[in-house]
Amino acid sequence: MHRGDTICALVTPPGVGGLSVVRLSGPEAFLIADRCFRGKSPLREVPSHTIHYGRFLRGEHLVDMVTASVFRAPHSYTGEDTVEFGCHGGVVVAELVIEALLEAGARLAEPGEFTKRAFLNGKLSLVQVEAIADLIYATSVPGARLAARQLVGGLTRQLRDLRQQLIEIAALVELELDFAEEEVSFVSPEDVRTRLEEATQWCKQLADSYRAAEILRSGFFVGCVGYPNAGKSSLFNALLQRRRAIVSPIPGTTRDYLEEGFLIHGIPVRLIDTAGFRETEDIVELEGIALAEQVVQQCNVLLVVNDVTQGVEHSYTLLYQLRRRFPDAAYAYVQNKIDLLDGHGRPGAVEPGVPVFWVSALRGDGIEGLRQWLGEQARVSSDLGVDALVNARQALLLRETAAALGRACEGLRLGLSGEFIAADLREAIQRLSDLMGETWKEEVLNTIFARFCIGK
Ligand SMILES: Nc1nc2c(ncn2[C@@H]2O[C@H](COP(=O)(O)OP(=O)(O)OP(=O)(O)O)[C@@H](O)[C@H]2O)c(=O)[nH]1
Ligand SMILES: [Mg+2]
After folding, report:
1. How far apart are CA 206 and CA 152, in angstroms?
2. Ligand 1: does its nearest atom lie under 6 Å from the Cβ of 382?
3. Tens digit of pLDDT for each residue in 309-361?
4. 335 lines ligand 1 (CB under 6 A)
5. Which atom belonging to ligand 1 lies closest to the Cα atom of 229?
6. Which end of the chain is more exposed for a tag (fewer CB within 10 A), N or C?
7. How far, in Å, from the CA of 311 to the mean position of ligand 1?
8. pTM listed for this prediction
9. Has residue 386 got a pLDDT over 70?
10. Does domain 127-215+391-436 have CATH number 3.40.190.10?
């Protein structure tokens, strides 16, 4: 077991509340706890998973009447001896409890240190650790649900099974069994290839779900773009259903960009209003507006707002240039200010895959239809196709695993000798181990735990 000193921290959110919980974990947890806690019996003598009521003292002074929950190693969150003190909510009491524990020999926990110990003691896989971080930061309901499921260990188990399978296949291949001649009944080369191909597909699909996972994690980004005065800020306000952005007849009203959120189908949509792209501006010149570029770059959908009074095709060039530059986003062409038109235009697509919406941001015509389309886009884009929430680190390793497996398949197809195929398989196995954190590197761990807050 990993052995360190005994650490403590507030594990509930700081501030005023009904209850605050201070966790104490480490080899001396009971010793230190008994220096401060006076209950019916010393905590070092009570059984695991029991709760005790008593006085919490700092020196001679009573701090609070508290409950002490006792968890004996390895049956605790960290895998170490742990005591959790439930004290009355509020800023002062919990702070006094922590100070008393520090004076009694504990050390203040670093951000994520409890979880890090849980990982080092084999209570959690790295994938589960990352799921906890996701859960803490989840902004969407489906995202939180998936992170919770991952925490239970579904993905970890699947990855472990896959690795086990690959180890077995590698062993077979390494023995250079000539399947065809020996008539090995339990496994044929076709069988091996099918299994490897399936594994490759699975890794790829999981890696590809990263973009969708990002949406569930940080939101679905929708940008209003267009020439000055097209009505971007008006559309922004109309979609938000409140007057957030300043609207004026003077071109160039919006200088910076604005961002506001709302939920569609439990998915957080981040709506962004940008400064207008000047008509003379070649998209290359856009490089100068680094901010706008950065903002547009992270958008999942770009609404190209066109002032119809300038002509329905007025913003086609802009749409064309944006699509070339940011091909990953989805686009809609929004014909705005239809209240100023005599007749209405007909719906249809400007280009394949780019729907047109006829709206009046001022009066609200057509806004609901646009909202619904955005909701559908958000839903489809965040549909993972798999039951896991993959982050950037995991996606990269999954792609590398898939690539190595792909090479192994190709080798089998070409009838290469077993040692080549085994080398690719070993690489895939190694990547999977990295993924699960079984061959972790200190810096990888540090970046992962840096996302945690103190007390987690
Ligand atoms: N009649 C009519 N006027 C509109 C409509 N939408 C916007 N406007 C007007 O168009 C002008 C420009 O609107 P904004 O929303 O500020 O346009 P913008 O694209 O944000 O402009 P910049 O930030 O300057 O690039 C304002 O006077 C709005 O009232 C609309 O649907 N109908
Ligand atoms: Mg504006």
Report:
1. 18
2. no
3. 998 889 998 899 889 888 889 999 999 999 998 765 565 567 778 999 999 99
4. no
5. 21
6. N
7. 15
8. 0.65
9. no
10. no
